[in-house]
Design brief:
Blueprint: H1 2-19, H2 27-50, E1 57-71, E2 74-87, E3 91-106, E4 109-116
């Protein structure tokens, strides 16, 4: 039982040290966190725009990652959220919202910021 606990502590320490490396996150970490950040940003925008009174329903249908590039202390990841807008008189209209996410390690862990892609 003592050996199992020691192994868990060592694995947790190695995983934490890898994520919180002063060199920044790995590309896989940045892509995973940015994909989640894109979905959260889209949902937050829908929540702000809708306020429960809109006759138009927005539904996210997917999140795609595009190119990624290394920046100082992390990565920038481009991506797109695919969604549909549905209204009673118009039907369903597909659309895409393109974002850029920056993922960097802070003292609190991996932080992401999302902005519109230009």
């Amino acid at each position: 039982m003592g050996i199992s606990a020691a192994v868990v502590v060592i694995v947790a320490a190695v995983a934490g040290a890898t994520l919180l490396s002063t060199d920044g996150p790995t590309l896989a970490d940045a892509q995973r966190e940015c994909k989640t950040a894109f979905a959260r940003e889209f949902q937050a925008r829908i929540d702000r725009a809708d306020a429960g009174t809109s006759p138009v329903v927005a539904s996210m249908t997917g999140v795609d990652l595009d190119e990624s590039r290394e920046v100082d202390g992390g990565f920038e990841v481009n991506g797109a959220v695919q969604y549909t807008l549905t209204a009673s008189l118009v039907g369903t209209v597909p659309n895409t919202l393109m974002f850029t996410c920056t993922a960097k390690v802070t003292k609190d862990g991996l932080a992401t910021t999302v902005r519109n892609r230009t």
